[in-house]
Amino acid sequence: MSLSRGGSESGTVYVYDTRTGARLSDFVPRVNGGTAGGSVAWDEDGSGFYHTRYPTPGERPREDLPFWQQLYFHRLGTPASADRYVLGKELPKIAEIVVTASEDGQRVLADVRNGDGGEHAFYVKHPGQEFQQISRFGDRVVAAAFGPRALYLLSRQRAPNGQILQLEFGRARLAEARVVVPASVTPIQGIVPAKSRLYALDILGGPSQVRVFDLAGSRSGAVPLPSLSSVSNLVHLDGDRVGLEIESYTRPPYWARFDAGTGRLVPTALAMRSPADFSDVQVLRELAVSKDGTRVPINILMKRGTKRDGKAPLLLTGYGGYGISMSPSFSPTRRLWLDQGGIIAIANLRGGGEFGDAWHLAGNLTHKQNVFDDFAAATQHLIDHRYTSSAHLAMQGGSNGGLLMGAMITQHPDLARVVISNVGIYDMLRVELTPNGLFNTTEFGSVKNPEQFRALYAYSPYHHVVNGTKYPAILFTTGANDPRVDPMHSRKMTARLQGANASGLPILLRTSGKVGHGVGSPRSERNAQSADVYSFMLKQLGMKFREPVQMPAP
């Protein structure tokens, strides 16, 4: 278990006895961090575990301590200082390592990422051997998983939607792998091998699909998922059975079992309960047309009977980065907004992974402006189709989505009445001077590259605030311990906008000294921030608060 304080994400791993709950004397510091994360995997006999490790003070200069992650092995009952180096000295400064073991514990897989831009390299350790490199960053292998007799790889080399390769144990070169599931129009997100089946987790513009193949790649069916739902976890259970964590916009996450032999999907008792009932909520999916003609999906949640007269308060969110998809998800706090007569909309922007690798690459590096154009088009679509109007519209985004909000504020200051921007990035010319900002150069680009510099400057929100402009009401939020986005971004952007604003509307900064980027934030702080955000939006949109509908106890 990794524990950190105050949302810093700087974690020390402690070991517990699962039979008694007692903590052992073993502890390993500097395993997890807010830049490259952290990972552990037990060896085959349980005598120790592989773990990521950041440099300790004295090994590298102080400014390099959040970088140069490597892989070590810790044997139980020994001090962390005796841990054995395994892998990583040859890796780039911004390497991020995720390590997993096979189900029998005999093999270990190391997924090395080149920063946050989506490049992966894979290393495998077979019994009695050291780690061997299977693929390099340029090979475009993005996922791997152990099967009964082979390693299965998800490759996007000359296949933006992905194809599945099989590399038999005993073979170490990628060139020896053979294609078992060819590329198609369906983007593959992940792979899970079972005893005699291979499951492919697909994404269809946001919602999920799971196809079933035999281990040789012959199609044998699909998992009967609910419509407009997403699978956030897919794990092998035993035999050819898998477990799936499923959720939708109107149903909380729950686990179900699927047996390829019977073809049945059976919900289990492992499910989240919510006092918020969404049975009166309809989900619509429409397409906006972006500046260059690209069709951008919008998912719209509204209570049945809500009038489309342009007067409903609407909250629009988006992200558009890192190949991360805005898939159907459940949030009980949305009930509060819907009970005020509000509408919620989620846009599937380029930069995400909703339509495969090409969709991501169309919104990263020098193509980042496409993300902002997509969001502006989604906003205009909702206005044109009378879901709302600019006077009744609020936008919200966080982190990379905070950058999106900054671009909307500076490029389209009259499009929304309220903007909520959480832990956002706004000074794109200086972001890479912070530790995690350097990890982001493979997604955003670097000022050291002339072409990328021009693209970064062209949309950098901080550099495009104009004095005398009428800006919307804005609430920025940040955490003093944020290891991913330096709080200076929110502080600078707030001050610059306050000095330039001519609308008379409030531009405020909410800072918490108890949290970081949001990971690991205590529930009390999350609730306090949520209350402040909703209060700000309701106040600025002139909404009279209505008590939420009382739901029966779950």
Describe this structure in words.
- It contains 9 helices and 31 strands.
- The longest helix has 18 residues.
- The radius of gyration is 24 Å and the shape is globular.
- The strands form 7 sheets. An 8-stranded mixed beta sheet has the order 24-25-27-26-28-29-30-31, sandwiched between helices. A 4-stranded antiparallel beta sheet has the order 4-5-6-7, with no helix packed on it.
- Among the domains are: 88 residues; 260 residues, Alpha/Beta hydrolase fold, catalytic domain (Rossmann fold, 3-Layer(aba) Sandwich).
- A hairpin with a 6-residue loop joins strand 10 and strand 11.
- The protein has 554 residues and is an alpha+beta fold.
Number of strands: 31
Find the structural class using helix and strand composition: alpha+beta
DSSP helix fraction: 10-25%
CATH superfamily of the domain at 281-540: Alpha/Beta hydrolase fold, catalytic domain
Strand content: 25-35%
The major pleated sheet works out as: 8 strands, mixed
Annotated CATH architecture of the domain at 281-540: 3-Layer(aba) Sandwich
Low-confidence stretches: none
Helix count, DSSP H or I runs of 4 or more residues: 9
